[in-house]
Amino acid sequence: MRTLDLHDYNLEDAYQESQEFIAEAYKDHIKKIEIITGKSGRIRREFPFWAESNHQVQYIEPSWHGGSFIVKIEKKF
Q1: What pLDDT, on a 0 to 100 scale, did the predictor assign at position 77?
Q2: Could you say which architecture CATH assigns to the domain 2-73?
Q3: Mean pLDDT, residues 33-40 taken together
Q4: Is the pTM of this model over 0.90?
Q5: 69, exposed or middle or buried, with CB in 10 Å at 0-12, 13-18, 19+?
Q6: 76: burial class by Cβ within 10 Å (0-12, 13-18, 19+)?
Q7: Residue 7 burial (CB count, 10 A)
Q8: How is the chain split into domains, by residue range?
Q9: 3-state SS of the chain?
Q10: At residue 62, what are phi and psi to the nearest 5 degrees?
Q11: Which among 43, 48, 54 has a CA at the least distance from the CA of 19?
């Protein structure tokens, strides 16, 4: 599974990087990716909203350890 770690990113850069990472996974027909946000902070709070507004995301779920999200990517037709 491909993983993106957003630690040490500011909010704007984290948004941009996460959207590009999702787009790349979609293009490459990757089914699931992991986005590491950390267990607290603004990126952790904002990421679910970013994912919900992205048409390439089918759904997200918090990881078992709480420091990341598993992102299910829509199938590319």
Answers
A1: 73
A2: 2-Layer Sandwich (3.30)
A3: 97
A4: yes
A5: buried
A6: exposed
A7: 11
A8: 2-73
A9: CEEEECCCCCHHHHHHHHHHHHHHHHHCCCCEEEEECCCCCHHHHHHHHHHHCCCCEEEEEECCCCCEEEEEECCCC
A10: -65, 145
A11: 54
